[in-house]
Amino acid sequence: MAFRRIAESHGLTGVAPWSRPAEGALNVVISTDSGPRELRFSSDSPDLPGAPTRVSWAGELTDLGGKPKAVARVRRMLGLQRDLTSFLSLAESDPDLAWVGPAGGGCIARGDTAFEDVLRTILTTNCSWSMTIRMTQLLVATLGQDARPGEQPHEGRAFPSPASVSGLTEGELKAKIRVGYRAGRIAQLAQLVVSGELDLEGLAESGPGELTDRDLTRRLQDLPGVGPYAAAHIGLLIGRPSGVILDSWTRPKYARITGRKHVTDAEIRKRVNRYGPDAGLALWLILTRNWFEPGLPS
DNA sequence: CGTCCAGGTCTAC
DNA sequence: GGTAGACCTGGACGC
Fold first, then answer.
1. Is the pTM of this model over 0.85?
2. Separation of CA A284 and C1' C8 in angstroms?
3. pLDDT digits (tens, 9 = 90+) for A150-178
């Protein structure tokens, strides 16, 4: 992989508690037993596949339960836990995707928890991207884990826990976080997790062997505020990208890239259908290729 | 000022 | 299975 392909794998890597302080750098504040701590990723050769990614961190390894756990957590957040072998082997013979392997692409950055991925996805629905940024920023700033009194200075707040979110009523979410009608769905989601009725982390970690793509999609769509778009989007983030993301951004984007005036959802699906469990990833990479190669149609 | 809409979802037919 | 209408918010646009 090449670092910049991960750092800019998704617009959400620029939204709280993530940030991109510079070219070839990516930060995220995560929650630990000792409070929020900022993870900093960088690379001297961000576009060079295989170049080392530097990871620095203002905390102790014990905050993360030791080195093996810390490494696993970091690899997961960078989307490095997936095996892309079969996808890349298919992509090789696809003129629009053959670049992925050689460029070191295919990894999608992911939140520290599935709760974060689901909630941030809900905050992308039915609103402008600037609204998504505002709502997410407010959520993190208002409810995110903060340093406890007497603690050493920290870099910011981590994404709020389900318990923290469920601490606000629907009305408070609407008034303080400005999430509008999404407040009810968000409150419900947090409550489901807090009560133990919903094991979101387990759901996101279940492999295709335990839960088929079809069933995972169904389970995701059963979540409050999660429909076809959001389920596919969450799937991309958590490493189960079978669903094709179809929304007001991807549809016109696909049309522009293919130089067409209008395209149907069926055509888009058909284009990446052969990638099966990676169909959503395939479309995403086709759509975002010009983020890295500015000469291409966008 | 009003209307429309942006990286949709849900309910009710 | 499929499709209207409602739904928070704030920026863009027309009048």
1. yes
2. 29
3. 676 667 899 999 999 999 999 999 999 99
